[in-house]
Amino acid sequence: NIIVVEKNFKDFDENKSLNLLLNEVRKNSNNKWVLSLDGDEILEDTAIVWFREFMSEKDFNEKITIRFNYINLWRSRKQYRLDKWFNSESGKCFSIHNDLISIGTKFNNHHFCYGDIDNFGEVVRPDKKILHYAWVDWNYILKKFIRNINYEMNYNNNSIDDAVEICGSILDDRGLVLENCHPDWNKEFRP
């Protein structure tokens, strides 16, 4: 089932958009979970099987955050970065509760949590991956760098110098550590 929600905001505000979507999800009492993925993120296929098993065993009344290993593919679909913040974990799936909200953070990031920035409910960490394609194409990386600088200046009120410093790690190859993607991920790659 796909529901399309269209709203016109005078200025783009990711938190308003995400909180609007959360409210739409809450309107249907059958919805128990929300999975937040961007268009350039793909869950590895084995995560679907894991989801089915996990959700059949879990009490839907609990506040739960599921955090996945976040793999940032780097300038290729065959390798990813291990250094700095490029290999991390990300909360992407949440049980639906009235105090689940989206809260913005620095550097064009958002995340959901329960009530305040330090409350994520019970945190579950399956050994599943999100493959993130945002860094594969160099031209797109440069566009993202510029977009994030503008975001930092316009929405977080940073100076141009502070914005460049905050966003600079996108282009910083110092200490670059790359790892070849696991062969099982090949089937995950999309054209």
β-strand number:
10
Number of helices: 4
User: What is the element string, with H for helices and E for strands?
Assistant: HEEHEEEEEEEHHE
Query: Average pLDDT value?
Result: 79
Percent of sequence in beta strands? 25-35%
Unreliable stretches, pLDDT < 50, 5 or more residues?
Answer: none
Name the helicity range: 25-40%
Distance between the ends: 25 Å
Sheet having the most strands: 6 strands, mixed
Q: Which radius of gyration do the C-alpha atoms yield?
A: 18 Å
| Cα shape | globular
Return the structural class: alpha+beta
Description:
The radius of gyration is 18 Å and the shape is globular. The chain has 191 residues and is α+β, with helices and mostly antiparallel strands. It has helices at 14-26, 46-57, 138-154, 160-167; strands at 33-35, 41-43, 64-72, 79-81, 87-95, 100-105, 109-114, 122-124, 129-132, 178-180. Strands 1, 2, 3, 5, 8 and 9 form a 6-stranded mixed β-sheet that branches. Strands 4-10 form a two-stranded antiparallel sheet. It contains 4 helices and 10 strands, in the order αββαβββββββααβ. The mean pLDDT is 79. The longest helix has 17 residues, at 138-154. The chain starts with 13 loop residues before the first helix and ends in an 11-residue tail after the last strand.
